[in-house]
TrEMBL record:
<keyword id="KW-0223">Dioxygenase</keyword>
<protein>
    <submittedName>
        <fullName>Ectoine hydroxylase-related dioxygenase (Phytanoyl-CoA dioxygenase family)</fullName>
    </submittedName>
</protein>
<dbReference type="GO" id="GO:0016706">
    <property type="term" value="F:2-oxoglutarate-dependent dioxygenase activity"/>
</dbReference>
<dbReference type="Pfam" id="PF05721">
    <property type="entry name" value="PhyH"/>
</dbReference>
<dbReference type="InterPro" id="IPR008775">
    <property type="entry name" value="Phytyl_CoA_dOase-like"/>
</dbReference>
<keyword id="KW-0560">Oxidoreductase</keyword>
<dbReference type="GO" id="GO:0005506">
    <property type="term" value="F:iron ion binding"/>
</dbReference>
Length: 288
């Protein structure tokens, strides 16, 4: 089997450290693309309790599910046997990684809802996402990044976090705000409001790529990212795995995520400030 990290030279690692995101061409062979696509098809038929539909009626279908590898064997195989773990390990400069999460996103033609600008901050420490496209996605519809924003040394929260908990939000923005709404208001000085990047795009160095099926994005968790709706004539599907090393810990505001997992019947034993451990987060040693 070819080494899946052969194309990730020191220059790519340096670019990831500098920019917060890189694109790896053809990192996932066609059979991995087909496996993930079949998993999404089956997951739609058998959604988990974490399944989300973000689009208002009549505005296309923006869907996602999280940690559904427990019920979808295609996702279990993809997460643990595809090149994703090796790519994450190479990019995190470690021989062993933990699978934090499997998720997927699909936007059908006509979907107007955009993925709002955000970053992933419920874990502190080395943490990256491996984002694989299953369809041809031109740059204007692909995931975008604010270059270097992972180096701003700021934790961002949605506007809802600073405002009334009764704020009327679109479904997709409510999803990103949900895990922060119960956090102690006294700690809000720790966080910055996500800037209105769409309103002032010219003020930011925005990074994106034209992508073909099997191409892969790797990005640091704190790199601000978002994407437009789907104006294409075909679905825009992405398979994502998120990875941490053994030193990453649950952030103070991560307790609400644990509460949600417990409420949905997941077996988790995570404590704020403690390393990520447990059966839900398996260890993978891709180079062993």
């Amino acid at each position: 089997m070819p080494n899946p990290t052969a194309a990730i030279g020191d220059d790519m690692i340096q670019a990831l450290d500098r920019d917060g995101a890189i694109c790896l061409r053809g990192a996932f062979a066609q059979h991995w693309v087909e496996l993930a696509a079949e998993g999404i098809r089956r997951n739609r038929e058998t959604p988990s309790p974490m399944f989300q539909s973000f689009s208002p009626e009549g505005e296309g279908a923006f869907q996602s599910d999280i940690w559904s590898r427990r019920i979808i064997p295609q996702f279990e195989t993809f997460a643990l046997e595809s090149p994703a773990a090796a790519i994450a390990a190479r990019c995190l400069r470690t021989g062993t990684v933990r699978l934090l999460q499997d998720t997927w996103f699909s936007k059908s033609p006509g979907t107007q809802a955009r993925t709002p600008w955000h970053h992933d901050n419920v874990v502190l420490g080395p943490f990256c996402s491996v984002w694989v496209t299953l369809d041809r996605i031109p740059r204007q519809a692909a995931l975008e990044f604010v270059r270097g924003s992972h180096r701003w040394n700021q934790l961002f929260m949605p506007a809802n976090f600073f405002e009334s908990a009764e704020s009327d939000l679109p479904a997709v923005e409510e999803f990103y705000a949900r895990y922060h709404g119960q956090f102690d208001i006294a700690a809000r000085e720790t966080f910055s409001r996500v800037p209105d990047i769409e309103a002032r795009r010219e003020d930011y160095d925005i990074l994106s790529w034209d992508m073909e099926p099997g191409d892969c994005l790797v990005f640091h968790a704190r790199t601000l990212h978002g994407s437009a709706g789907n104006s294409l004539t075909h679905d825009s599907r992405r398979m994502v795995t998120r990875w941490v090393d053994e030193t990453a810990v649950l952030a103070p505001h991560g307790r609400t995520v644990v509460d949600r997992l417990l409420a949905e019947g997941f077996e988790v034993d995570l404590a704020v400030g403690a390393p990520i451990r447990g059966n839900l987060f398996p260890v993978v040693s891709p180079f062993a």
